[in-house]
Amino acid sequence: MAEKENLQPEETVEETVEEVAEPTAEEKLTEELAAEHDRLLRVMAEYDNFRKRSQKEKEQAYGDTKASTIGEFLPVYDNFMRAMSAEATDLDSFKKGIEMIFNQYGETLKKLGVEAFGEKGEEFDPNIHNAVMHGEDENLPENSISDVFSTGYKMGDRVIRPAIVKVVN
Q: N or C: which end of the chain has fewer CB within 10 A?
């Protein structure tokens, strides 16, 4: 009988059931809150990474576009360098070389989608023209351009530089 006294009483069935019982409503809410908090932190981290990646791509696209545009103008620059280093024996050959470079420059602008505007006789449009003078001329229709001081340039609908003009009537 001495052996029976050293034995520990067995756990009751009720105690075992309590250990396995479902968590309380408060515990469930705490777990759900922690899971939702973790999910929100992950979403915030993903958004921050997306924002940084978008900014980096934007800066890279700007740099790539800038380098591409400069690359288009380098042949024109090279021709100016050749013209400056060449010994011009007569003015006509020098003038012809400059005209060729001017035409090459114009072709490069066209290739990039740049259009010139603001010619004498065009109708004045305040959205793309900058009128610096006003005058009278009976040979031109009302609200038209009589003189162009600086040609305007645009790419598609975007005005790069407005034409500076004199408007008549």
A: N
